[in-house]
Amino acid sequence: FEGENAFITTDGKKLYHDSCAACHMHKGEGAYGAGYYPPLADNSKMESKYYIIDILINGFRGMPSFHGMMNDEQMAAVTQYIVNDLNGFNEIVTAEDVAQLRHEKPPASDPSDE
Ligand code: HEC
């Protein structure tokens, strides 16, 4: 987990399997073991693309930040995969959505504040 834009693909499914499945499992079912990895499939929180994007940018407790590893398009692609393929929600995720959060979000705000 190091290096600027370590991934070159913008295929959301591939990004998911390369960078998320190790912890969240291949179908997004999550895992309980040495740690707790929440499921990303059939998870109602995944209805909000901004929730996912925010976690990708900032990390979330035990979850590493992908800020330096994925560009806006890649974050959008992997978020799209989770929202549509793993959860069946009907939402379009664009690189602009990511750019907006990446650049405009005040660093101190808490993603769990709703
Ligand atoms: C090194 C392990 C690891 C990797 C790799 C990882 N995650 Fe996570 N993720 C976690 C952990 C641990 C949590 C739970 C954090 C907590 O609640 O303390 C989490 C939480 C999340 C959540 C919030 C789930 C919820 O129900 O609130 C999302 C969304 C998420 N991860 C998306 C991703 C995506 C997308 C990727 C790939 C780009 C990814 N994660 C890669 C460990 C990982």
CATH top level?
A: Mainly Alpha
Number of separate structural domains: 1
Structural class designation: mainly alpha
Measured between the Cα atoms of the first and last residue, the distance is: 30 Å
Q: Got a strand count?
A: 2
**SS strand fraction:** under 5%
Could you please say which CATH topology applies here? Cytochrome Bc1 Complex, Chain D, domain 2
Query: Can you count the helices?
Result: 5
Q: Identify the strand order in the major beta sheet.
A: 1-2
Report what the structure shows.
By secondary structure, the chain is mostly helical. It has helices at residues 12-19, 21-24, 49-58, 72-86, 95-104, and strands at 31-32, 36-37. The protein has one domain (12-104): Cytochrome Bc1 Complex, Chain D, domain 2, CATH 1.10.760.10. It is built from 5 helices and 2 strands. A hairpin with a 3-residue loop joins β1 and β2. The radius of gyration is 13 Å and the shape is globular. The structure holds heme C (HEC). Residues 19-20, 22-24, 35, 37-38, 40, 43, 45, 52, 55-56, 60-64, 66, 78, 82 line the site of heme C.
Keywords, separated by commas or semicolons:
5 helices; single chain; 114 residues; 41% helix; Cytochrome Bc1 Complex, Chain D, domain 2; binds heme C; globular; mainly alpha; two-stranded antiparallel ribbon
Please specify the SSE layout and strand pairing:
Blueprint: H1 12-19, H2 21-24, E1 31-32, E2 36-37, H3 49-58, H4 72-86, H5 95-104
Antiparallel strand pairs: 1-2
Helix pairs in contact: 1-4, 3-4, 3-5, 4-5
Bound molecules: heme C (HEC).
